[in-house]
Amino acid sequence: MDSINPFSLKGKIALITGGASGLGFAIAKCYQKSGAKVIITGTRDIKKLQKACIEIGENTFCYQVDVSDTKNAISFIEKVEEEHGSIDILVNNAGVHCKKPFEKITMNELNHVMSVHLNGSFALTQAVVPSMKKNKSGSIIFISSMSAYLGLTQVSAYSSAKSAVLGLTKALAGELSQFNIRVNCITPGFIDTPMFHKAVDCDIDRQKKILEHTPMKKYGKPEDIGWAAVFLASNEASFVNAVSLPVDGGCIIGF
To answer: Catalytic site residues?
Structure first.
């Protein structure tokens, strides 16, 4: 244990998908503050990605990668590990939203949401596991959502993907634990991020309902998820496995 920081990630290499903004950016900042070498990915805007990399701080690196392009997952991980070393921590955070009534969601939209949240995470995890097995150590963290627990309206594609992530977390924990690879999941509540605002800013009734359902009567901060991810990745969580950790201000039990 580090006497200064008991949840130190010093010496660890962490890969965080979707790290240019929102939850991924917050997780990356918290990891960097905790001593990890941080590698973030983003899809569209390379300048935004590079700016985020600078803002996160020293020992941070970035790659422009589309996680839904699963055929390139192995070559991407091989490139990262060749340039930086074996990945100790993988945070499958990259995501997209789709807010529509169920009957108006097209199969293309459903497939796109699933390809990012589930297929992309699945492929990247497959790609990092061999080196984790070799090292007999690893922490894999998935980011799910309250929508996997609650009957939220107009997000059926997103809810389907996030529910699948919960199932994958448990299945992989059962399969990989024998190699000292821990697999956990964070289920954020309603967090103050650009994706969240895109979904609710034009829906006052939904905002009111969210706060009424959250016992703490406020939205979470991205850093709330970041520090939870630090704990799950740290050696101090060495016996925490197959957990779905709600970080939601009590939303999951809100009445």
So the answer is: 158
Phi, psi of 68 (to 5 degrees): -75, -15
Q: How far is CA 210 from the centre of its chain?
A: 22
61: tokens are 């690196």
Q: Helices in the chain by DSSP H: which ranges?
A: 22-33, 46-56, 73-84, 107-114, 121-135, 156-176, 194-200, 204-213, 222-233
Give mean pLDDT, residues 13-33: 97
Q: In this predicted structure, what is the pLDDT of residue 97?
A: 87
Smallest CA-to-CA distance from 98 within 86, 82, 110 is with 110
Contact 17, 41 (CB under 8 A): yes
Q: Is 105 helix (H, G, I), strand (E, B) or coil?
A: coil
Whether the pTM exceeds 0.90: the reply is yes
Give yes or no for residue 179 having a pLDDT over 60. yes
- pLDDT tens digits, 129-159: 999 999 999 999 999 999 999 888 899 999 9
Amino acid at 239: F
203 confidence band (pLDDT: 50, 70, 90):
confident
Match 């290499």 to its residue by tokens.
13
Contacts 24+ apart (CB under 8 A), 164-169: 164/114, 164/117, 164/118, 165/92, 165/117, 165/118, 165/121, 166/142, 166/244, 168/118, 168/121, 168/122, 168/142, 169/142, 169/144, 169/242, 169/244
AA identity, residue 138: G
- Which of the pair, 250 or 200, is modelled with greater confidence? 250
pLDDT tens by residue, 50-85: 999 999 999 999 999 999 999 999 999 999 999 999
Report how far residue 84's alpha carbon sits from residue 69's, in angstroms, rounded to the nearest whole number.
22
